[in-house]
Amino acid sequence: MPIQNKTLKLCNCNGTVALDGTTLSKALELGTPIQVDRALCRQEINRFTSALQDGGDVVVACTQEAPLFQELAEAACFTGRMQFVNIREFAGWSAEGKLAQPKVAALLALAGIPEPEPVPAISFKSDGALLIVGPAEAALYWAEQLKEKLDVAVLLTSTRNGTLPVRHDYPVYSGKTIIIKGFIGKFNVTWQHENPIDLELCTRCNACIRACPEGAIGFAYQIDSDKCRDHRACVEACGSIGAIDFERTVKARSGRFDLVLDLSAVPLMWLPHLPEGYLAPGRDPLDQARAALELSSLVGEFEKPRYAEIKTGLCAHSRNQVIGCSRCIDVCSSGAIHPAGNSAEIDPHLCLGCGGCHTVCPTGAVQYAYPRPSDIGLRIRKMLAAFSAAGGKEACILFHDGKTGLELLMRLGQQGKGLPARVIPLEMHDVAATGLDVLLATVAFGASQCVVLHPSSEAESYIEALREAGDHAALQEQIWNLKPADGVLESAVFSLPDEKRRSLEFSLEHLAKHASQKPELIPLFAGAPFGQVILDKAKCTLCLSCVGACPTRALTDTPEMPRLKFIERNCVQCGLCVQTCPEGALSLEARLLLGAEARQNKVLNEAEPFDCIRCGKPFATKQMIESMVGRLAGHSMFAGGEAIKRLKMCADCRIIDMMEGQTCETTIHDL
């Protein structure tokens, strides 16, 4: 619903936020000035409850008291939609608060944007089968605490200072070389059982403890190899139970679990973003207690969005077993992306939605949907339009996440100078999804510049393009020292497509047309997703293997004659053509070519076709046949004129000629 059809409640928070209802109303095209309250959450609460009576959607410019307003709405049986917008910490509480009316208009404009279309969901089911991994003392302690709530099993990595419980309430294993794979509801765990005592068979009768002369067996029922002298008295004492075997050959064990609590000092799953259902609190008792509390809530059925998927036809991962691009695989911080034939594949159960794969994908094969680029583009365009309508200039969009980044901005507003009046914060699910398509579109839509607030907890695999601000004081210094950059002379009005390459093309065309400086060519760093393919004609035989390898149709051929063509705008510099070329005739040059020339289909090489000497049909290039004849002329299989002559024939005529001139049994070498 447009914001014009919603009830807008503004509050200056006891006069601490400068608000101009007339200016804001004009910028938002409301028609009448907006009433500004002073204590909407206290003395003027009746004005809020009165707004609920209309039954329409309500926008409240306050996030601090959102729980109170929601409670009142529930009590009033309010059926409309309620939205909360932060204008206090983000705009009003600033050293430039009196200049922040354009920013307030931009923030309020977001409330008039419809909700994005829902994305498909991924389901999980957890029955509460929990594996606790770690040293005996900690693992057994937490097993005792959780056994009444969850279906517990324990895998001991060390038995020092450990004693097994007096009751056999849950299975206890021991092992080394532990490998954990999977996600909530479907963890596969494998380990090597190294100790001679099998805890699954052990009855804890203590016969082995009494029999061992060295005292190498404690009440964790594992043999200390440093103390053991191989008397084997324990084996005899164990007898028919058969729990002790020093000659065990099958050591591999495995199990399936819904949840894993890893109490190792260093997590066994070494990923920046761990899968849901796997908790690794380390050795700190308080962190362990928090993890145990969280585990109790991870039983039942769950859903999460399918954050991204890959269009295999666009993926430049590989062709003909030649690896080209692996950027999404390298950047994925949750291990959710892996090779699958010629393309990469996303495991939606492991994907946590950071969006880094979409950011680094040069072809746009990775389709990110939380939110979609088109939804982000709409929000940015509406914000900047309202900012400009209220008289704002040189806007800077600050992308942040809804956790660490949001908390940092709140502290900056409450305890520091706040944000400059021209800096507009925009929340993302994860800032790693803020790719080149979004950043260029932001500038094309009229922003002076973009800033990405990158939390220190993010994965190192995608921090190169982002700056880290560890606390609000550091952020304050950086953001207030940021000088406006030159913007476009005219703001773009196009809708941002979900297709990444189209989005980049729209933005680049607009920026090239309306920028204050208009270079025709911009050199780029190696690995950039724009550039040209350079061909050495002396080496090229026009075999056209590069055309078959190109995933974006930047390289094409023509059916009527041997010709290799190239469209620079389509090239993503994946390198598949370079690695596929048998002659080593191709190389890459990263650059951004602006203007119509980048879209032209230019000829890189063409050659005179070679006609079959028997039927006259063109079937190869003259250069290719001459090269082949030159290379094979000295080979024993081509001694004599007939074999060399067949190289100059098409495939059909070659077989006919062999059959007509056959004097002995045809061999595989003839074919």
Question: What would you note in describing this structure?
Answer:
The protein is an alpha/beta fold and 671 residues long. It has six domains: 3-84; 125-302, FAD/NAD(P)-binding domain, CATH 3.50.50; 306-368, Alpha-Beta Plaits (2-Layer Sandwich); 373-502, no CATH class; 531-606, 2-Layer Sandwich (Alpha-Beta Plaits); 609-660, no CATH class. The strands form eleven sheets. Strands 8-7-6-12-13 form a five-stranded parallel sheet, with helices on one face. A four-stranded parallel sheet has the order 2-1-3-4, with helices on one face. Strands 22-21-23-24 form a four-stranded parallel sheet, with helices on both faces. Strand 16 and strand 17 form a beta hairpin. The radius of gyration is 34 Å and the shape is flat. It starts with 6 loop residues before the first strand and ends in an 11-residue tail after the last helix. Mean pLDDT is 90; it is low at 462-470.
